[in-house]
Amino acid sequence: MGWLEGQVALITGGTGGIGSAIVRRYVQEGARVGVMARNREQLDALQTELGDAVVVIQGDVSSLADNQRAVAQTLEAFGKLDTFVGNAAVFDYFTRLDRIAPEELEQAFQRLFAINVQGYLLGARCATDALRETRGSMIFTLSNSAFYAGGGGILYVTAKHALVGMIRQLAYELAPDIRVNGVAPGATNTPMKSLEGLNKRSQPLNAIPGFEEAAARAVPLQRIAEPEDHTGHYVLLASRKDSSLTTAHIIHSDGGWEIRSAGGR
User: Fold this and answer.
1) Helices marked H in the chain — which ranges?
2) Helices 231-238, 18-28: inter-axial angle, 10-degree rounding
3) For the whole model, what pTM was predicted?
4) What is the spatial distance between Cα 244 and Cα 100, in angstroms, rounded to a whole number?
5) Is the NADP keyword given for this protein (predicted)?
6) Are strands 83-86 and 8-12 parallel, antiparallel or unpaired?
7) For the chain, which residues make up each domain, given as ranges?
8) What is the CATH number of domain 8-260?
9) Is the dihedral of CA 125, 127, 130, 133 positive or negative?
10) Residue 172 catalytic?
């Protein structure tokens, strides 16, 4: 028996990096999973790999209609919803405010926040009624950038800080019916993409020369995370038996970033 035996989850951004690792781990733990993402080819590959344990939904998290459809298709396939995992996000490739042209700032802000913040809120809103019926939970992927400067640029760091308040407020508003928590990964070996057109130098994170070595040196545990390193936290927070009194909590999974000076001794 897995930790999530008999449960149903919906995961956004579920086809790459941390997202697909969560999907696979949830299936291993006995859950059935709705997977929402934009890339049809990657969705089809995941469906082929995991079979009837998943239902895949192509959609954009910044769209209300797509979020509604993702919840509806998950309910149609599996009959209920126990956990919503908001995970889809884009990076800003460390772009500083003074490196964004003033005439481009408003559009860049709206595009990044539409995915990284609005996408979470839309998913949460669309999942609320189904989660109330099961007294389920919500889990959101944050970042060490939700607590510390320097892990991204001005738009990404601001958006991730905003999500700390979102988790706390949702936990307050939805109690006692729905638990709301988060996981804050640090640097991870993923191909996370940046917002298109924001920075001409941008490339997938794990394609940056020296990224893995620099990330390892920056934390006391002296290694970069793999996506699978974070998945146990998502399992724990979704577990009805082992996290039934946990809400408004964010688990740090960042190699000890807060005490990073210890790594330089």
Assistant:
1) 18-28, 40-50, 64-78, 102-113, 119-134, 154-174, 211-217, 231-238
2) 50
3) 0.95
4) 44
5) no
6) parallel
7) 8-260
8) 3.40.50.720
9) negative
10) no
